[in-house]
Amino acid sequence: MNIDECATGAHTCAASEKCEDTKGSFNCVGVKCPPIGTFDLALLLDTNVDIGDAGLSATKAFAKEMINSFEVGASSAKITVAGYSGEKVAPSVFSLIPLQARSQLSSRK
Fold this sequence. Notes:
By secondary structure, the chain is an alpha+beta fold. It folds into 2 domains: 1-31, no CATH class; 39-106, von Willebrand factor, type A domain (Rossmann fold, 3-Layer(aba) Sandwich). 24% of the residues lie in helices and 28% in strands. The chain has 3 helices and 5 strands; from the N terminus they run αβββαββα. The protein has helices spanning 5-8, 52-68, 102-106, and strands spanning 17-22, 25-30, 39-46, 77-84, 89-90. The chain has a 3-stranded mixed β-sheet with strand order 3-4-5, covered by helices on one side. It has a two-stranded antiparallel ribbon with strand order 1-2.
């Protein structure tokens, strides 16, 4: 007999996650936004040395997670990412060229 933790509310999924019942358990799944048409997205990220290597890694991970929540392409989202260190935008750290395919993101540092 399977108990549906999703239906009974016995799951531990976050409010932003979808609960999916499995036999004998459940899975929490992140919910992606549906495609909403063509748009441009610009992310300006803190790359100041004061945030340290761990902070920069966390900032990059956040940006990748955000970008992965969108459908990237010429007929959907075009994304530009730039780093800001407090003095100037640093195009050498992040590309200022809009990404038109998700595969372009994986080639970035």
